């Protein structure tokens, strides 16, 4: 049967076909939602699979691009995910006023005309991995996220047996100290996640506020600073101006790409100033271009808190 303007349903799955009125590169748009190799809540395989804690329950979404975008969803949150499909793929993203001030940005924009800023509408699902990525290597953070998802998440509805819906705030509050240690999560990140889980229902309001107001609401939680708030804002509501200040690598990448030298956060803010209020969009073009800063020292080695 067909429901809600083209959505098709069976007893186990609902589906929707959507034709975007703009160029769309599905992989580029959704890539920021993946958390490294083996992410149990995100997979690229003949399309993109992702799982979610929605306001009405867990759900799984599969999106593929043919002539149009074809999406299928399972679980209690299936309808909610399909309703949010256009926003997820950047329909609410307006880049009409964006101007390129550097050749690297201009070239990247020409190369990826289908890059849009995703908006998942899900604050908690973006906040959990962002906190885990605070002040550790990406390898460490992704390992901890995988372990927490697999041990405290729930099996994802739908046909893929090993997909998992990330842990809910309630599940996070039930994790014992030794379980955090086993997952390689130190005390500071653990305390930040517990504090966030205790007020998670209020933090979802950051999506409605958007922009700096939404980021400010997130920063009211002890242990959540500007970097984490920006990482959430980029994914939950597609904030075009939310730059991840405080990132170990980002200022150097932006500096070398745009002005040919390393800069710190203050320098990055100065370099990106002409792009306000769409500084994050400029950053996305820089990172998509493959620009890297020169390496002058050995790579930082991951720590394993499980053996400390």
Automatic annotation (TrEMBL):
SUPFAM superfamilies: DNA-glycosylase. The keyword DNA repair applies. InterPro entries: Alkylbase_DNA_Glycosylase/TA, DNA_glycosylase. Keywords: DNA damage, DNA repair. The keyword DNA damage applies. Gene3D superfamilies: Hypothetical protein, domain 2. This is DNA-3-methyladenine glycosylase family protein. It comes from Saccharothrix xinjiangensis.
């Amino acid at each position: 049967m067909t429901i809600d303007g083209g959505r098709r349903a069976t007893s186990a799955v609902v589906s929707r076909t959507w034709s975007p009125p703009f160029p769309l590169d599905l992989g580029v748009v959704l890539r920021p939602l993946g958390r490294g190799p083996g992410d149990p809540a995100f997979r690229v395989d003949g399309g993109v699979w992702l799982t979610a804690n929605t306001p009405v329950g867990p759900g799984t979404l599969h999106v593929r691009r043919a002539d149009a975008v074809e999406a299928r969803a399972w679980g209690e949150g299936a309808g909610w995910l399909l309703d949010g499909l256009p926003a997820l793929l950047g329909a609410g993203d307006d880049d009409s006023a964006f101007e390129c001030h550097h050749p690297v940005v201009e070239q990247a924009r020409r190369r990826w005309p289908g890059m849009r800023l995703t908006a998942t509408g899900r604050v908690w699902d973006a906040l959990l991995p962002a906190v885990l990525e605070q002040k550790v290597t990406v390898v460490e953070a992704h390992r901890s996220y995988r372990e927490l998802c697999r041990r405290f998440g729930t099996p994802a509805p739908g046909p893929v047996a090993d997909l998992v819906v990330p842990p809910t705030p309630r599940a996070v509050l039930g994790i014992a100290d030794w379980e955090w240690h086993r997952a390689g999560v130190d005390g500071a990140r653990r305390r930040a996640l517990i504090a966030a889980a205790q007020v998670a229902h209020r933090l979802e309001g950051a999506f409605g506020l958007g922009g700096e107001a939404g980021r400010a609401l997130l920063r009211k939680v002890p242990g959540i600073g500007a970097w984490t708030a920006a990482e959430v804002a980029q994914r939950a509501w597609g904030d075009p101006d939310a730059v991840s200040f405080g990132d170990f690598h980002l200022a150097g990448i932006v500096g070398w790409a745009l002005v040919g030298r390393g800069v710190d956060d203050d320098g990055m803010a100065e370099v990106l100033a002409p792009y306000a209020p769409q500084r994050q969009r400029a950053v996305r073009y820089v990172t998509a271009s493959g620009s890297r800063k020169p390496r002058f020292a050995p790579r930082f080695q991951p720590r394993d808190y499980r053996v400390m």
